[in-house]
Amino acid sequence: MVIDTNQMLSITEANQNFSRAARIADKQGSVVIFKNNKPRYMIVNLAENPLIDLSDDEKTDIIARRILDKYRKAFEELAK
Question: Contact 26/45 with Cβ under 8 angstroms?
Answer without folding.
Answer: yes
